[in-house]
Specification:
Layout lengths: L2 H11 L3 H15 L7 H18 L7 H13 L1
């Protein structure tokens, strides 16, 4: 990482969380040059499917603490 990039990162990390989030979003958008015309509909369908699974009891909801623990355990193996 160049000195300029390191300094920029240091400055960015000193921003409040909301400003860092907005900066991240802007940077990611600058990299995403291809537009998938079907992405919005695909995400809508996926969200609806998952909501239906929750509503029907087909999936078991777990707390964020349990989910985080399971993810950490998975990453350790």
């Amino acid at each position: 990482m160049t000195t300029d990039a390191a300094e920029l990162l240091k400055d960015a990390l000193s921003l409040p969380a909301e400003a860092r989030s907005a900066l991240i979003e802007s940077l990611i958008e600058s990299l995403d040059t291809e537009v998938d015309e079907n992405a919005h509909e695909a995400w809508r369908a996926e969200v609806q499917l998952r909501l239906d699974q929750v509503d029907s009891g087909a999936v078991e909801m777990i707390s964020w603490d349990d989910a985080r623990r399971k993810l950490r355990d998975r990453l350790r193996h």
